[in-house]
Amino acid sequence: MAFAVSITMFFVLLLLLPLSATAQPYRNVTLGSSITANNKNSTWLSPSEEFAFGFQQIIRGGYLLAIWFNKIPERTIVWSANRDNLVQEGSKVQPYADGRFELSDPRGGFKWTAAATSRDGVAYGAMLDSGNFVLANSSSGALWQSFDEPTDTLLPTQTLNQDGKLVSSFSKTNFSKGRFLFTLQIDGNLVSYTRNFPNDDAKFAFWSTQTVGSGSKVIFNQSGDIFLATKMEVSSILCLQARRRPRPVNFTREQYWNMMGF
Ligand SMILES: *[C@@H]1O[C@H](CO)[C@@H](O)[C@H](O)[C@H]1NC(C)=O
Ligand SMILES: *[C@@H]1O[C@H](CO)[C@@H](O)[C@H](O)[C@H]1NC(C)=O
Ligand SMILES: *[C@@H]1O[C@H](CO)[C@@H](O)[C@H](O)[C@H]1NC(C)=O
Ligand SMILES: *[C@@H]1O[C@H](CO)[C@@H](O)[C@H](O)[C@H]1NC(C)=O
Ligand SMILES: *[C@@H]1O[C@H](CO)[C@@H](O)[C@H](O)[C@H]1NC(C)=O
Ligand SMILES: *[C@@H]1O[C@H](CO)[C@@H](O)[C@H](O)[C@H]1NC(C)=O
């Protein structure tokens, strides 16, 4: 069973989705290949086809470069590159041989670049069955990964490091940054804030783990348990307990929202 946790307007939610049973080799994205924002649905799929990387048209002529659950009718977006700057039709994303991974708009508009820790030795890109898109070297070491730049969602096996942030979407159909921020601060405290929308700064902290000096990372493990790892020990955050069900069912974010009574 797979899960995802996501910060929406107010709360951290979980999605339970069908499990991709077998681990298969990557379908590598070769350097120099590209996908273009248009209505042809071109994507890079994970081996199980559970996750897709590509463009979704959000408004007429406005595209979001995103990763989404590909096997449920509502293709729930779990990551995006340009949430505040939709790109136009004809925009392209491409991993280059020199290690750059770029989104460019044909009319010279917004451009997004993945900040690879090292540009040396990028061999291929791959959409993994975990929902992580990686740029890897020849020994499959990740040089850049979407898991390191979360938007509003955490997936199983993903961790949120110090200074990591989840910012809720503005609404269910508008993926721009919205009104809530969930962050593991550099000081080790895990805090939920309202945002000084539309400015980028935090306004009011309404929840925290009070772990200044000790919180080191938020771990979402394969079984759906979420922990705040501290320097001393791994402690459970009670308010982020996973909701487990015996049988995997397809849930949209909205259905979950309703089910949990929000
Ligand atoms: C793209 O995918 C959607 C949804 O699956 C489908 O309705 C549409 O016909 C596809 N478009 C093309 C050009 O294949
Ligand atoms: C889940 O979604 C898949 C793909 O859309 C579909 O084939 C399957 O029947 C769905 N399962 C349930 C339990 O609704
Ligand atoms: C992907 O690339 C790596 C490194 O070059 C290689 O070891 C692996 O076999 C490739 N996988 C596929 C499915 O092409
Ligand atoms: C590939 O990357 C990993 C982790 O980033 C690193 O440990 C490894 O040395 C690299 N391998 C090569 C051949 O560059
Ligand atoms: C999303 O909402 C923001 C804030 O109201 C707004 O500035 C932006 O234009 C909206 N984007 C879309 C695609 O509607
Ligand atoms: C996730 O954490 C829980 C609680 O510590 C543990 O029981 C479970 O075995 C862990 N799952 C994995 C896959 O490590």
Automatic annotation (TrEMBL):
Keyword field: Glycoprotein, Signal
Signal peptide positions (record): 1-23
Gene3D superfamilies associated with the record: Bulb-type lectin domain
Keyword Iron: no
Bulb-type lectin domain mapped to chain residues: 26-148
Pfam families reported for this sequence: B_lectin
Highest taxon listed in the record's lineage: Eukaryota
Name the UniProt record assigns to this protein: G-type lectin S-receptor-like serine threonine-kinase LECRK3
Gene source species: Olea europaea subsp. europaea
